[in-house]
Design goal:
Layout lengths: L1 H19 L14 E4 L5 H12 L6 E4 L10 H6 L7 E4 L5 E2 L2 H11 L12 H14 L19 H18 L16 H16 L13 H13 L1 H19 L19 H6 L7 E4 L3 E5 L7 E7 L16 H14 L12 E3 L15 E5 L9
Parallel strand pairs: 1-2
Antiparallel strand pairs: 1-3, 3-4, 5-6, 6-7, 7-9, 8-9
Helix pairs in contact: 2-4, 2-7, 2-9, 5-6, 5-7, 7-9, 8-9
Bound molecules: guanosine-5'-monophosphate.
């Protein structure tokens, strides 16, 4: 009943605002159909739409509700509207069309409510570039900040993904004009770039120190000062900061990071002789080396050709029993290197080799740093002793 009355009043309100002039523009009502944003406080990508809705003061026209209202992200009802099963999602009353992608949702809001509140500079090249770089190069690997296991985008290890994430923040940092006139990325007017980048930087600021990056270095310098200015000078950004950070702190309390390598879970086993070989502190007859793998002749060969292949970073792999999805990439690299080495006649290999991993006391493992034995140069007997 109330809704019907409100709808009946709409033409009257539109009529009066026309005559009240621009001074009342934040209060302007739009004739756009009512929309619903399905999103949650922790969602950094959806947060940009929440910023736009609040800055434009259109929260009576765009409801923000949890995806649980539709049964959750993986419910058939939600998946019908967003086959990706991700947040956010925007639906518009009376339309079968749903928008399941943050940037497109924002552009819908910016054009539908173009005459209400700040414009967010939809045609500003720098704003659009920062938002696009964010979506192409940060969003695609941001899982490295909070997901339990790789891959993170195209990166098979958390370390590589974190390095790339930081490199891409620096690329954006380089685009920011330090002398700009105002607290926002494009100067005195808030833009889509501010709304897009800010929530992700809340994640980065909170999470990177957990991976050993000093808090002071978590954000590159210009992003860091822009971030603090928005936090201090803009209530809407401040609210989104509290929402995202509050959710992350909730995860902290539940011990979410305890099982995440490099965050809560660290390799605290003592160093072995192999660390000294990797650091070139003691000599070894190295036969192959790349960024991830080192191979050297066994000091006490058990066959005419005997090479050990080891990961340069142990990363918890004191033995194969410690292997987890975090190690899929390095395990593959070790075996590929072992296969290559076993074909090298200059090392004494002839026609094949035995590839062995001794694991734990029953396996006869002596050095607690995963190593693959490549044995050959003669016909080996089976079964092993
Ligand atoms: P595990 O018994 O742990 O599977 O094998 C450890 C291997 O490392 C042994 O075959 C042993 O001969 C080799 N090893 C131990 N210390 C050294 C060293 O200082 N240099 C080299 N090249 N090999 C070593």
């Amino acid at each position: 009943m109330w809704i019907q009355n409100a709808a009946a009043l709409l033409p009257l309100l539109l009529f009066s605002t026309k005559f009240l002039g621009e001074a009342y523009s934040p209060m302007k009502m739009s004739a756009a159909a009512k929309a619903t944003l399905y999103d949650m406080p922790v969602s950094n990508n959806g947060a940009r739409a929440r910023i736009i809705i609040r800055k434009k003061q259109i929260s009576t026209e765009v409801d923000i509700v949890s995806p649980m209202e539709l049964g959750g992200l993986k419910s058939p009802e939600y998946l019908k509207l967003n086959p990706q099963g991700k947040m956010p999602l925007l639906t518009v009353e009376g339309s079968s069309f749903a928008i399941p992608e943050s940037d497109t949702i924002c552009r819908y809001l910016l054009s539908t409510y173009a005459d209400v509140g700040p414009s967010f500079l939809p045609n500003d090249a720098k704003s659009n570039l920062i938002a696009r770089l964010h979506d192409m190069y940060l969003t695609t690997i941001q899982g490295c900040l909070y997901k339990a296991t790789p891959p993170f985008g195209i990166y098979g290890t958390r370390k590589d993904a974190l390095d790339e994430f930081r490199k891409q923040m620096k690329v954006i940092d380089d685009l920011i004009d330090a002398d700009r006139d105002g607290i926002y990325l494009c100067g005195s007017e808030v833009s889509l770039a501010d709304a897009t980048l800010f929530p992700t930087m809340t994640f980065a600021r909170h999470m990177l120190p957990k991976f050993g990056i000093p808090e002071t270095d978590a954000l590159p310098p210009k992003i860091k000062s822009w971030y603090s200015q928005l936090l201090a000078g803009d209530d809407v950004f401040n609210k989104v900061h509290d929402e995202v950070l509050g959710a992350l702190q909730g995860w902290d309390e539940k011990g979410r990071w305890d099982t995440i390598p490099l965050a809560g879970l660290r390799d605290e086993d003592p160093e072995t002789i192999f660390d000294k070989i990797i650091a070139k502190e003691i000599p070894a007859s190295v036969v192959y080396e790349d960024r991830a793998v080192l191979a050297f002749k066994d000091i006490n060969p058990a066959a005419p050709a005997h090479v050990l292949v080891i990961p340069k970073e142990r990363n918890g792999l004191s033995g194969l029993r410690k292997a987890s999805p975090d190690h899929v990439e390095i395990l593959g690299k070790l075996l590929v290197a072992a296969g290559e080495i076993s074909k090298d006649e200059s090392l004494g290999f002839k026609d094949g080799a035995r590839i062995v991993i001794n694991d734990g006391p029953d396996g006869g493992q002596e050095v607690p740093h995963l190593h693959v034995h490549v044995l050959g140069g003669r016909s080996l007997t089976w079964p092993p002793g």
